[in-house]
Each structure stands twice: as structure tokens, then as C-alpha cells.
Amino acid sequence: MSYPVGVGLAIVAVIIVISALVQISQYRRGQQLISRSQLTLRLVMAVLLLAIIGLSFGGVVYFNTRQQPLTEIIFWLMLMLMAVVVVVLAVVDLRQVRRAQHRARAELYERMAQLQREMKAAAEGKQADNNKID
């Protein structure tokens, strides 16, 4: 692994850690509209991504000094499997976000409809009062 790639992956790892800490902080302060299960899902993804980065570094160092083709193939296949798991978890998280967004939009439309009914009732009541005066 070249030096710039290693530095780039280290920077990505730091960004992942900072993002996870920000998510936890915002959730605890109530600034996030995500559920506890979504937070857990995101933290699991962060841990898996950090494991993939760390194991990539370790694998490159370990397999540069030893010639074990079968072990190396299994190792890299396991890392790819972990990456696929991260992608699947990300899709699950995206579906949960969209579902929550849909619920929030439906609730907003329901509140708008209720307000419209109240305004219509108030206007009819005012018109009825005006008709009584005439």
C-alpha cells in the first residue's frame, strides 16, 4: 500500500470516528430525529468501516512478509464480505430514513388538512354571524 493511500485511509478513519461521535452527541441532546435503532445501525457501520480500514493496513503488512496464498485470499474475501454488509446496512438505514420522512410528511399534511377544516369552520361561523346581523 502506498504512503498516500495509507494517509488517505487514516484520514477517512478519523472522519468516521468524528462522524460517529457527532451522531452520538446529537442523539443525546435530542437534535437528531433518528431512532435508537438507527443510531445503533450507524454505529455498527462505523465500527465495521474502521475494522475494514484497520484490517486492510494489517493485512498488507502481514501478507507482505509471508507467502500464504490461501490465507490471503480468505482474508481479503472476508474484508469484501464486511464491505458488502456495510452496504446492506446502509441501504437498511436509508429505507428507515425514507420511512420516517414519509411519516413526517403524512403528519404534516394531516395537520394542514385539520387547520384548513378549522379555518373553513371559522369562516362559516363568521358568515353565519354576519347573516344574523343582516
Walkthrough of the structure:
This protein has 134 residues and is an all-alpha fold. The chain has one domain (3-133). Helices cover 91% and strands 0% of the residues. The protein has three helices and no strands. Helix 2 (36-65) packs antiparallel against helix 3 (69-133).
Short structural summary:
With 134 residues, this protein is mainly alpha-helical. Helix content is 91%, strand content 0%. The protein contains three helices and no strands.
In terms of topology, how is this protein built?
Blueprint (H helix, E strand, L loop, with lengths): L2 H27 L6 H30 L3 H65 L1
Helix pairs in contact: 1-2, 2-3
Our estimate of the beta-strand percent is under 5%
What is the count of β-strands? 0
* Structural category: mainly alpha
Name the helicity range.
over 70%
Q: Could you give the distance between the termini?
A: 89 Å
- Outline: rod-shaped
Mean pLDDT: 90
The rounded Rg comes to: 27 Å
User: Are there runs of 5+ residues with pLDDT below 50, and where?
Assistant: none
Tally of discrete structural domains:
1
Number of helices: 3
H/E series, N to C?
A: HHH
Keywords:
rod-shaped, mainly alpha
